[in-house]
Amino acid sequence: DLVGGTGMDVRSKARTLPGPVDDPSKLPKWNFDGSSTGQATGDDSEVILCPQAIFKDPFRRGNNILVICDCYAPNGEPIPSNKRYNAARIFGHPDVKAEEPWYGIEQEYTLLQKDTNWPIGWPLGGYPGPQGPYYCAAGAEKSYGRDIVDAHYKACLYAGINIGGINAEVMPGQWEFQVGPSVGISAGDELWAARYILERITEIAGVVVSFDPKPIPGEWNGAGAHTNYSTKSMRSEGGYEVIKKAIQKLEARHMEHIAAYGEGNERRLTGRHETADINTFVWVRRGEPRRVGAGGPRHREGRQGLLRGPEAGVQHGSLRRHLHDRRDHHPLQG
Questions:
Q1: Residue 230 in contact with residue 106, Cβ under 8 Å?
Q2: Domain ranges of the chain
């Protein structure tokens, strides 16, 4: 499984191996035509796939596996869309390993009717009743698509993804699953594997999964990927002060991070519908971008963590800002 040139389109191809493999380093590299995915030009189109993480295949089952790969040019250089490469370098640094960074990612998404791109359960060309009764709801008049959601949940559990749970969201036809807590780069690998499995499940169901931050304009909630993050220092005695210092570092580069989270987020972050304005950095109170857990010094939740953002970039930014005041202080900054 790989990510295409848009940063959100998930691609895959299959191959046969001589026997079972449980270590990505023992898998062969492969290749694909990058000119067909927006990741290379037609006159030099070969892109190399390097296996990085293995999950059990919930579709073929048996000894079959799903493999998360990142992408390189034939000369061994990571291609521009390979955000995992720099993130892996950061997570591999001894200072980072010592901090044991945990991530819990809340991935929201919307299920759409294939032929109309309108949310499932909504009247064709019309609207359901106002938001309010749909969040975490049960019942045919309030909950749309649970069979798809539960199939995805079970498939992720089978695959070995650290999926924490699922729930219906505020807008009808919108759902969420949670990955984590997972340590370091594994959180991004698990999230992309879960997104891929969701694409496959909805493909079988004849439904479209949308990761758009604001699929329906107007008085409807958008969709995000709220990112809960903590380090060993944050989880220890005195961790609340560590959290506050990390938030101050993030605030200094707020717009840089917003730019890294993908397109369309200005349609969601308007100051309404449980969001803050995209240009505003505030924290503590729920409904605004940065929130510290009410249970004490345990985690910091980035509520600006947006659905279309490349997950490795979100992780990279949070770690870099926590561990270092300025970009030029980071020993691995490229």
A1: no
A2: 2-87, 93-223
